[in-house]
User: Fold this.
Amino acid sequence: MTKSTEGYKGLKLFEMPWTIFAIFSAIVLAATYLGVLPQGMAGCFAFMIVIGTVLNEIGNRTPIIKDYLGGGAIVVIFGSAALNYFNLIPKLLDAENKVYAMGIKLDLIGNITTFFKPTGAFLDFYIAALICGSILGMNRKLLAKAAARYFPAIFGAIVLSFAMAGVAGAVMGFGVVKSILLIALPIMGGGMGAGAVPLSKIFESSGTMTADEAISTMTPAVAIGNAISIVMAGVLSKVLSGGLNGKGALMRTGAANAAEYEISPEMQKKRDHISVANLGKGLFVSCSFFAWGYIVSKFWTMAVPSVSIHAYAWMIISVAVCKVLDVIPEDIEICCFQWFQFIMKNLTTTLLVGIGICYLELGTVIASFSLTYLVLCLLTCIGAFVGAAFVGKLVGFYPLEAGITAGLCMANMGGTGDVAVLSAADRMELMPFSQISSRIGGSIILIIGSLMLSILGGML
Assistant:
């Protein structure tokens, strides 16, 4: 009789019963520490999935960390970095004499770096799927109709958060440019995968610093900003009242209801009907848009060599324009969304392991962390809330709801941060608007980052 794991009610790891996951994990770890793990993509995927899944489960079950510090994502990043830092993953320690960590003749760190880090490797592959699928997966009405009011609130959050971080950086001796580019920019960027990681690549392409240095400095800011955003949402939703508090309504009386911008049940049904062919189409279109970003970037560089705008930014702009103008057939949009969901659900922890191993230097993180750093993160989040609330009031929003969605949902860690912030504020009905902040707002930060680095990068 054929056995099946469907209906299993116990602990699951990587969406399978933990006992089965443990068996396959034991095989992978045995191959790793016997020094025979296959090189290239197969071995890297196997090891990174095991480590990422275990660390993610720990983070999602640890009190305080799961509620305020980003949960599994932060534990995967820092846990992977710690394994590398303490030489617990086989690697080449001395290229000339071929000295290996733990005496195992397997340079797994080198293999993962080759698989993950170069231009066009797994990191770019993931980001292409993320940008294309997340934007094409948005409700077109939400993107087009809410822009006139919502985007000014987002820009209010960005401007004031940058201003407060810059002024505080000058007063505290951290530096105006350094405060804005290395603290405010990543905090407002929408998390790790869609924010700090592509930002680090933009830093590297601009010649400002290596991606390793950038992400080691930015990662603590992203984690701290996420924690502060969640706490602020919970506190302010209880403290602010009267005309400042819409009690869950973003727009004042007479404006469209947020439910108008949700994905329709019909569209959701189409999205849920996933096929292997759809995933292939989504892969192809996402990579094609990524290539288009490089085409536009090349011609832009030829036309305006003094201002560098990364290919990521051009891809974002192109996909958003196509979405608003409705030039992509609906079935292709669905394919891109399904591919994005497949990549995000199955390979995000793999991505985070790669970030921790290849980009995060714990020594740099420890050296960069200080009371000044913490204060700058706090002021960035306060600036985000106040800026969004003030502009939101001017355009007809309730200040509290505007500050939470257009401000704090810019300063948190993307999708999981949105859930945590809105849950803390008891305003889950505002999820469609928080998604604009995380998806489009985060994309705007990448564009701003490209422009700012081309102008201010030399001052770091």
Q: What stands out?
A: The first strand starts at residue 12 and ends at 13. The beta strands are 12-13, 16-17, 92-94, 99-100.
